[in-house]
Amino acid sequence: VQLVESGGGLVLAGGSLRLSCAASGFIFSINPMNWYRQAPGKQREFVAGITGVGSANYADSVKGRFTISRDNAKNTVYLQMNSLKPEDTAVYFCNKGMGNYWGQGTQVTVSS
Length: 112
Hints:
single chain, mainly beta, four-stranded antiparallel β-sheet, 11 strands
């Protein structure tokens, strides 16, 4: 199993970023996929999840601002992040919903 995140960076508050996670080594289309994040000094927390058929759920802190999606033909899951806030600053991790598999993370920094 390999999960490779990309798309992080530095953005001003109110801006947008789109994260991608390219997956390989398993049957992507039947696996739920998740995004988590970990801010400095804090525990890793759930951000958003999506089932194989596209049903999504979100942490309350990102509802209405973030959108998770997937392209099963490309074995990729995305996280569109809009209206970013400084408190969204964290390392964002892609997670395979079944089994303890994680990507290396991508840094998102939101400056005020």
